[in-house]
Design a protein that fits this description.
This protein is α+β, with helices and mostly antiparallel strands. Strands 1, 3, 4, 6, 7, 8, 9, 10, 23, 24, 25 and 26 form a twelve-stranded mixed sheet that branches. The chain has a six-stranded antiparallel sheet with strand order 11-22-12-18-15-16, with no helix packed on it. Strands 17-13-20-21 form a four-stranded antiparallel sheet, with no helix packed on it. A hairpin with a 4-residue loop joins β6 and β7. α4 crosses α11. It starts with 15 loop residues before the first strand and ends with a strand.
Length: 618
């Protein structure tokens, strides 16, 4: 009987391996078989072990395109086509790193159609958490080119980073995508690491029981299905066909989408909104697109009684096509609110797009509540259990070599940021260790401005993220101003990618930790000209910086906050002058941009903002 050869999905057709480093090439065949690998003029041989596993060390190879690998045993041969040597980057974190190009098309409408570079490739690691065993191999996956339909599913940050870097040096780029929407930090750490910080839940060992996992998933599905059934059964609007254009809504109250709603419209249940629209003759027969921004939580939208689209959760923008516009038509929105406060994000544009024409849809909506429901319990996601994705998605990559890790995460931990920084440092060091690259650059995004998560402390989380800079070969990208205050998922991924590339270049020049903007180091109380002042010192990484006038620093002490507006810059220091009536207490701290959605006013000469900070006053 002939033996077969199994090559891991990571190494198959189209793979990109890290150039100028020794790579491992492994697989499985019959027990104790001689295995030969031939590519170009390089011939390598090894022997499989008693279980059939073989592992070959490839010599460091310069940047190269489209090489065929021939792997053979005594009775079987396979050929892997179009293998390249280039730069390989690991994309890690949660939804803002994951956010794919199709979701960004309103910001970058021509990018997908214009992409033509087959040397930008990606491999999406399947989301398969594991608890009772640590996976050694992925169960599926393939290398895709960042072109056409395949590009739609690639991380926007990853794509723009790769595109910009390729334009500089022409090196093929492989992106290994592991980011998972909503994933907290602990899912990316090992059991051993989390034990150090006493961060494993009491029920952790139960996760290793497959029957237990199946039971809690089934119970959650039963609850979620029952809740949805209740939504349908109690919705008066469904039974009375409130989507019908001929329905009489004259007695309904009127509301605007661009204003904050009365709280009676924001608690759980179902709301219906209706608007009759009359358009100019020039638009009749053309295709239109409704754009409503984001909604909390789920929606179904009808035009003239026919459903044109729906979204089942709150984060994506609602962009729905109308194939053929008529002179007059009625738009009906069925909005399901699961948790307070619900509604339509009033800061977003609400428009009908016809070609380049934008018709305002903010005003003149009729509204009526059709049901009231209890708050819905949060859905259970097995992906969010600690260690699961580390075991299932990261460990199987440990034989690969990388140029750098690109990381964007923290939103899901901002509700409880305690000891995030220590665990983040552990993650960086443990990943460098498992990939056997102690100098592997780790480039990460500090959270941008965002004001939608009212219960979360983004300011404290940003401060915790700075702990990563205590590890060598790390770089932090400050993104204040790149976010959207009313959206957890800002679309401006191109500028963030460019900042990551800046970090990639500079982490080599500043191996002990690099920040793309000015980084506050210390705050010292002093007496100057008989005045009580605080001297702020900065690490500027060789760049000059400036502070705008007439802004507010914050002095925080004794549980109270005081504005400090008298300040001046002296080279790489900012000197704050305190009011004569204000004496410092032992717990005094000085803060800058200390809020969920701040506006930067310290910038370096490249236009990059200073990192927000809180410093104890010495």
């Amino acid at each position: 009987m002939k033996s077969s050869i199994f090559i891991p999905y990571l190494l198959r057709d189209g793979a990109i391996l890290q150039s100028n480093k020794r790579n491992r090439f492994w697989g499985y065949t019959g027990s104790e078989q001689e295995v030969t690998l031939l590519y170009e003029e390089i011939l390598l041989k090894t022997k499989s072990d008693e279980k059939g596993y073989f592992d070959i060390i490839l010599p460091a190879h310069e940047v190269s395109e489209s090489i065929d690998f021939k792997i053979s045993t005594v009775d079987v041969e396979i050929i892997l086509k179009d293998i390249c040597f280039g730069d390989v980057f690991l994309l890690g974190g949660q939804s803002n790193m994951q956010l794919w190009m199709e979701r960004l098309k309103t910001r970058y409408p021509d990018e997908i159609e214009q992409a033509r570079n087959p040397l930008l490739r990606y491999f999406e690691v399947p989301q398969e958490p594991s608890f009772n065993n640590i996976k050694t191999e992925l169960t599926s996956g393939r290398w895709k080119r960042a072109v056409g339909e395949d590009l739609k599913n690639l991380s926007g940050i990853g794509y723009f980073f790769a595109k910009e870097k390729f334009s500089e040096d022409g090196v093929p780029i492989g992106l290994i995508a592991t980011a998972v929407g909503g994933a907290p930090l602990n899912v990316w750490l090992s059991e051993e690491s989390l034990t150090k910080f006493n961060s494993l839940p009491p029920s952790y060992n139960a996760l290793k029981n497959k029957e237990y996992l199946k039971e809690i998933q089934n119970l959650d599905k039963l609850y979620q299905d029952s809740y949805q059934k209740l939504c349908e059964e109690t919705d008066e609007g469904l039974y009375q066909s409130w989507q019908d254009p001929n329905f009489d809504d004259r007695n309904w109250p009127e509301i605007s989408l661009s204003e904050t709603w009365n709280e009676k419209y924001t608690f759980p249940g179902t709301l219906w909104l209706r608007k009759e629209l009359e358009i100019s003759d020039e638009f009749i027969g053309k295709e239109g697109e409704l754009r409503f921004g984001t909604m909390t939580d789920a929606d179904v939208i009808y035009v003239n009684g026919k459903k044109i689209g729906n979204t089942d959760y709150k984060y994506p923008p609602r962009n729905y096509k109308i194939s053929k516009l008529t002179k007059t038509f009625t738009i009906a929105i069925r909005l399901k609110i699961y948790n307070t406060p619900g509604g339509i994000t009033h800061g977003k544009p609400h428009i009908l797009l016809v070609g380049e024409n934008r018709l305002d849809l903010n005003h003149g909506w009729k509204i009526r509540r059709s049901s009231t429901l209890p708050e819905r319990h949060r859905a259970y996601f097995i992906n969010y259990e600690p260690t699961g994705l580390y075991n299932g998605m990261i460990i199987p990559l440990q034989r690969l070599k990388f140029a750098a890790i690109l990381w964007y995460q923290g939103e899901s931990d901002a509700g409880s940021p305690q000891n995030y920084g220590l665990r983040f440092r552990e993650l960086i060091e443990s990943w460098q260790k498992i990939f056997k690259q102690p100098n592997l650059p780790f480039l990460y995004i500090q959270l941008p401005n965002c004001d939608t998560e009212k219960e979360a402390d983004w300011a404290r989380l940003r401060e915790e993220q700075k702990e990563g800079l205590k590890i060598s070969r790390t770089a932090m990208v400050v993104t204040i101003g790149d976010g959207e205050d009313d959206d957890l998922h800002p679309l401006n991924k191109k500028d963030i990618a460019r900042k990551l590339l800046n970090a990639y270049h500079n982490v080599k020049l500043f191996p002990n930790g690099y920040c793309i903007g000015p980084l506050a180091k210390e705050a010292i109380q002093a007496i100057q000209a008989k005045k009580n002042v605080i001297i702020l010192s900065f690490e500027t990484f060789g760049k000059k910086f400036n502070v705008e006038k007439n802004k507010d620093f914050e002095l925080f002490q004794g549980g109270h906050s005081y504005k400090v507006r008298d300040y001046r810059q002296v080279e790489e220091q900012i000197i704050l002058e305190l009011p004569a009536t204000l004496s410092l207490q032992p717990d005094a701290k000085v803060r800058y941009n200390w809020s969920n959605a701040p506006q930067a006013f310290i910038w370096n000469e490249e236009g990059y903002p200073a990192s927000p900070f809180e410093l104890n006053i010495q």
